[in-house]
Amino acid sequence: YSYESIESIIKFILSRTSQRPEIGIICGTGMGGLADILYEKESFPYKEIPDFPVSTVPGHLGFLVFGKLNGTQVICMQGRFHVYEGYSVWKCVMPIRVMKLIGVRVLIITNAAGSVNQNFSVGDIMLIKDHINFSGLGSNNPLRGKNDDRWGPRFSPMSDAYDLRLRQLVRTIAKKLDLDKYLKEGVYCMIGGPSYETVSEIQLLKLLGADAVGMSTAHEVIAARHCAIRVIGISLITNSCVMKHDSEEMPANHEEVMEVGNLHKKDLEKLVTEIIMNIDTV
Ligand SMILES: O=P(O)(O)O[C@H]1O[C@H](CO)[C@@H](O)[C@H]1O
């Protein structure tokens, strides 16, 4: 997508809504209900937006939702794009650039993830402090190809990808909401999927310093940071990864991932609502 092609998508969308949000949300698997915290909603099915990919994964509805929360305008992706769906990585992150041109300054990225850290439990919320972009380390990076400086520089730093002050805000809010017992902080590892990891792969990720694993987010964060959007990353721990060979533990499965997403939707809604209401303080 050229800069100009994103501009024409923007033209299509903005001619259909008067809302101009500065805060974005990406809903993880089973967390599409996060859009329910908004009122005066205007929803656009992805399939009706020119040049937009469509959602193909259960638990990802496929709507771009504009709405308000306590007077603050928000844009929400009810459904994200994964590389394993067959989309190129640059195509998966295209909506981030759409958000940028709409005026988004802060993006709250949520996902469902398996725990690698054995101190984490299902239902915990992991505030992402860093990521390991497993496939991106090879060369499957969303910024690969000709750089357009209107988005950002050729070489983009990532050592400060997960905004420190916003993380402090999330910690404070979690305490206030009495969610701090569920709040963990750690490193998210993005793998390509769609197969879940083998036991040896999980052991490898653990050695590398990963606390949770999933098949999304890192590429989105890279695209967001490239165009100077500040990022909050939140993983809901939906399953414990099997760490030992020949164990009787239940293997990862998408039904469980979606179910846990739904089960803890209220906690996430409370957290995200409070974040949005306080974001201007940082
Ligand atoms: O990262 P999100 O989209 O939340 O979903 C996670 O859950 C799915 C696997 O169950 C994968 O898509 C994985 O990335």
TrEMBL record:
<keyword id="KW-0328">Glycosyltransferase</keyword>
<protein>
    <recommendedName>
        <fullName>Purine nucleoside phosphorylase</fullName>
        <ecNumber>2.4.2.1</ecNumber>
    </recommendedName>
</protein>
<comment type="subunit">
    <text>Homotrimer.</text>
</comment>
<comment type="pathway">
    <text>Purine metabolism; purine nucleoside salvage.</text>
</comment>
<feature type="domain" description="Nucleoside phosphorylase">
    <location>
        <begin position="22"/>
        <end position="276"/>
    </location>
</feature>
<keyword id="KW-0808">Transferase</keyword>
<dbReference type="InterPro" id="IPR035994">
    <property type="entry name" value="Nucleoside_phosphorylase_sf"/>
</dbReference>
<comment type="similarity">
    <text>Belongs to the PNP/MTAP phosphorylase family.</text>
</comment>
<dbReference type="Pfam" id="PF01048">
    <property type="entry name" value="PNP_UDP_1"/>
</dbReference>
<comment type="function">
    <text>The purine nucleoside phosphorylases catalyze the phosphorolytic breakdown of the N-glycosidic bond in the beta-(deoxy)ribonucleoside molecules, with the formation of the corresponding free purine bases and pentose-1-phosphate.</text>
</comment>
<dbReference type="InterPro" id="IPR000845">
    <property type="entry name" value="Nucleoside_phosphorylase_d"/>
</dbReference>
<dbReference type="InterPro" id="IPR011268">
    <property type="entry name" value="Purine_phosphorylase"/>
</dbReference>
<dbReference type="InterPro" id="IPR011270">
    <property type="entry name" value="Pur_Nuc_Pase_Ino/Guo-sp"/>
</dbReference>
<keyword id="KW-0660">Purine salvage</keyword>
<dbReference type="InterPro" id="IPR018099">
    <property type="entry name" value="Purine_phosphorylase-2_CS"/>
</dbReference>
